[in-house]
Protein: Zn-dependent protease with chaperone function
Amino acid sequence: MITAALLAALATACALGAWRFTTARWTSRAPRVAIILWQSLGVAWGLATTGAMLAYAVQPYGAGVLAGLHAFANGETPREPWDLMHVLAMIAGLTALTVLVVVLLTAGVQALRARRRHRLLLALISHDDPGVPGVRVLDHPSAAAYCVPGLRSQVVVSEGTIRLLSQDELHAVLAHEAAHVRERHDLVLLPFAALRRALPWSKVVRDAQDQVELLVEMAADDRARRYCSPRRLATALLRFGTAGAMPTPHGMIGLHARAHTVMARVDRLVKPGPELSRRIRYGSIALSVTLLTATPFLWVIQL
Structure:
């Protein structure tokens, strides 16, 4: 019973923490740290929520969540008789866990299929350009820049983008898209997109996904400015924002041109703020590690 109570308390703390975290002001100063903390909150919340129900359900076995589920699967007789509440908790816990896993796998499979179809399409409608080696170029007048993530990743720009941007700005945009590929931001975004599908009514989940999408873009900006001028990247973002850029295809990661996100990114590129204090940085990392270790631990022990 203590294990179930601890997991329920942890799930509540994660939900409240995510709600407060959506309004945190320091995240733009350390987007990678913020992304790690968001991922930790999401994983811990999912495991704690389902674990609380399952811990209560297997209480008659006198074992932890994993051991109790193993005993239940093997048809072992519990030490204490089950009542209706334990049966309902088992059904709810297994249903919630199954939904989370299925939604995550479904989102992953759909993204892989969309990327495979898009690669086939790119082979037909795009071409190489000596001016931008290693990049696929679409013969389209609108501005577009995105990457197709995966083992055979590709960076794609349109003819409209090449005409719209200067050479330095184009180099900055390509560095930004290459950062998405290197850091596998598609894998960062996938769990939040899956959680959004599982809980479409949740404002916290919607805000969390929006926050992580912006943080991913900021993290790519930070990596890109190692190889280009931050001001060139900022002007490229502004040009995209005013040119009516094409929407990014499903399953890809593209240069977002939404006004509120563009201005937030431009501001931090042109006027970078002070570095994040060590107290917040290391505290956030320590909290992430604690969440990712404590939650699985509570699945194993019996208190």
